[in-house]
Amino acid sequence: MTLMLIALAIFGVTYLLIITEWINKMLAAMMGGFAIVLTGIVHQKIAFAAIDWNVIFFLIGMMMVISVMRQTGVFMFLAIKLAKIAKGKPLAIMILMFLLTTVISAFLGSVTTIMILVPIVLLVASELKISPIPFIITMVIASNGGGAATMIGDPPNILIGSATDYDFMDFLINLTPPVILITIFSTGLIWLLYRKGMHVSNENRAKLMSYNEKNLIKNRKLLIICGIVLVLMLIALSLQSVIMIETATIAMTAGLFLLVISDRKRVEHILSNDIDWVTIFFFMGLFMIVESLVETGFISMIATGIMDLTHGEPRSTSMVILWVSGVFSAFIDNVPFVAAMIPVIKELGTLINNTEAMHPIWWALALGTCLGGNGTLIGASANIVAIGIANRNGYHISFREYTKIGGIFALLAIVVSSAYLLMRYFW
Are 421 and 364 in contact (CB under 8 A)? Predict the structure, then answer.
């Protein structure tokens, strides 16, 4: 019991440091990870073995792929192209950027998509002489929504995929339908919220329309190669259960190949600047901390509590997991939250002892953590990254300003997800 209380104390302090950002989140997670070793709660060998290296190397591989693709200028091309398709009309641009962010996030990841597209929308808004804040908020919402659709779209799904036998196609088949529904409803909500408040002059619209987006493509040969590699990688991920190759190996193979064929002078730059080592070590620390909760029996206690509440009935359990995950993920970064919940769900699986009954419970966890993260500024990594980019460019988005919009979209998404889970798996 004493060890459990110490583990919970370390876990709680780590979360507090992550939420408040008193220190760097990576430092907080790593300090927490080694604190559980220093206090003797978990032996170093067990703590290191708890790190999911498949997740770690998958993230590194994807970062390599995106870094090389960014060199081609394709992302800037897409954004300006969409702005011109919208004829420079702010609301139309917002909706198209929302849809583009949703699609790209499903395949490139929510954080990566935000890092690519937010600087571009800042440029578009600057040319139109309007505030980029509504665009940034809706793009964050889109990134978390789109990220929920696939195994590689959002870190929580990567963690769930690695912890289960689900492959890329399982996520696509089970999670893409609710994301499509949520995207449709969210698009309508954007129109209702912003249809009257966005106006630009004809002069500024004409300036944006004068951009020649074709000149933004910097390396057509590299773009073609990147496109082929990306398609092959997605095919390999979708056939993972057939070819029996782990996601990390697939992503690292693609990333290393693109590094080899790209500009040699940029390789060191990519490895030192474009690989988000802060996020990588953040994940490693979290894995170690969560293992302490498993070893001390706390996770088992939580699972038993949920079982007592729902009596192991799959429908009730799915709804509890969905809403609890949605609420908690709004206030706690969804990465450490899902890392803590995975052992809980595994323990529930042991207690329920029915593989089929566990499917909607896992999908409830994925939807709740990914979509609930839209609720507040600190709910997901993509939120924090986007706000950071905005602040560096002179645009402050307050906790209240974001939450009054993000909270509405998060609630809508959880309600739609509830209806989807009930209709697909229980009715």
Answer: yes
Residue 388 lies in a domain: yes
Provide the residue range defining the domain that includes 368.
Answer: 2-49+73-217+276-425
Question: Residue 6 has what pLDDT?
Answer: 92
Domain membership of residue 270 (yes or no) is no
State the maximum Cα–Cα separation within the chain, in Å, rounded to a whole number: 69
Residue 139, helix vs strand vs coil: helix
Looking at the domain assignment, is residue 226 inside a domain? no
Count structural domains, the chain: 1
Q: Give pLDDT tens digits for 210-219.
A: 877 788 888 8
Residue 384 lies in a domain: yes
DSSP for 41-92 reads SS-HHHHHHTS-HHHHHHHHHHHHHHHHHHHTTHHHHHHHHHHHHTTT-HHH
- Local structure of 246: helix, strand or coil: coil
Measured at the CA of 202, the angle between CA 200 and CA 206, to 5 degrees, comes to 110
Buried b (16+ CB within 10 A) or exposed e, 35-58: bbbeeebbeeebbbebbbebbbbb
* Separation between Cα atoms, residue 43 and residue 88, nearest integer Å: 59
Q: How confident is the model over 160-170, as pLDDT tens digits?
A: 988 888 888 89
